[in-house]
Design brief:
The longest helix is centred in the C-terminal third of the chain and has 15 residues, at 214-228. Strands 2, 3, 4, 5, 6, 7, 8 and 9 form an 8-stranded mixed β-sheet that branches. Strands 1-10-11 form a 3-stranded antiparallel β-sheet. A two-stranded antiparallel ribbon has the order 12-13. The chain has helices spanning 4-7, 36-44, 111-123, 175-178, 214-228; strands at 19-22, 65-74, 80-86, 97-98, 101-103, 130-135, 139-140, 145-154, 167-174, 185-191, 194-200, 203-205, 208-210. It has 5 helices and 13 strands. The protein has one domain (21-228): Nucleoside Triphosphate Pyrophosphohydrolase (Alpha-Beta Complex), CATH 3.90.79. Helices cover 20% and strands 31% of the residues. It is an alpha+beta fold. The termini are far apart.
């Protein structure tokens, strides 16, 4: 694919793309490695590891842009990850499940600064409730964003105020669910001679199914690899 104008991805429902595999053979990250102290230690002294998903195949002619997202681990009795559902009118990734985050501004001193600023603007998360642990390797999306995932611990007594212009819904997914490859589905689609592959992690909460896929699922898969290394 050469550009978004001549060969953009078709409008499709990712939920309808067949599952080509589920990694039930891979072990889940132990609960003992998901505690706040264990996470702090892992980022303080990271092991040698390789991210599994680094770059999506491009479908956009836009110039590359740097961005950062916050991977917010809420310190409940069983830790959860806070996610958003983007509103349908946004110009990029509308309606998708995402981490709080966005494009880097010139005044941002670091990826963490971008992620914290965006989290405040999108969901009203105040920095005083956040303990940044570190960053995962950059993830390059098909829409040409070079994304730095910033992993952080979030105090559960924070008060969130989602921006209705950007966020249609807020929800939390148990960290243990996301760190179990039995919940990681693989998909593949061929379009104009190019095979595209991605992960999904569908999560049922009450009557609603939250469909985590694409870049968000790819970054979570890398987080799994980092913690399991």
């Amino acid at each position: 694919m050469t550009s978004a104008s001549t060969s953009a991805l078709p409008q499709f429902d990712p939920r309808r793309v067949p599952v080509v595999g589920v990694d039930t053979h891979l072990p889940a990250v132990p609960l003992s490695a998901q505690t706040p102290e264990a996470l702090r230690q892992r980022f303080a002294a990271p092991p040698f590891w390789q991210p599994e998903v680094v770059r999506e195949k491009s479908f956009s002619s836009r110039a590359p842009a740097h961005a950062a997202v916050l991977v917010p681990i809420v310190l409940r009795e069983q830790p959860t990850v806070l996610l958003t559902e983007r509103t349908g009118h946004l110009s990029t990734h509308s309606g998708q499940v995402a981490f709080p985050g966005g494009r880097t501004d010139p005044e941002d001193a670091s990826p963490a600064a971008t992620a914290l600023r965006e989290a405040w603007e999108e969901v009203g998360l105040e920095a005083r409730f956040v303990e940044v642990l570190g960053t995962l390797p950059t993830y390059i999306t098909g829409s040409s964003f070079i994304v730095s995932p910033v992993v952080a611990l979030v105090q559960p007594d924070c008060v969130l105020r989602p921006n209705p212009h950007e966020v249609a819904d807020l929800f939390e997914v148990p960290l243990a669910f996301l760190l179990d490859p039995a919940n990681h589905q693989r998909h593949a689609l061929e379009w104009q001679g190019v095979r595209r592959e991605w992960f999904s992690m569908p999560y049922q909460a009450g009557q609603k199914n939250h469909y985590i896929w694409g870049a968000t699922a790819g970054m979570l898969r890398n987080f799994y690899r980092f913690l399991h290394a």
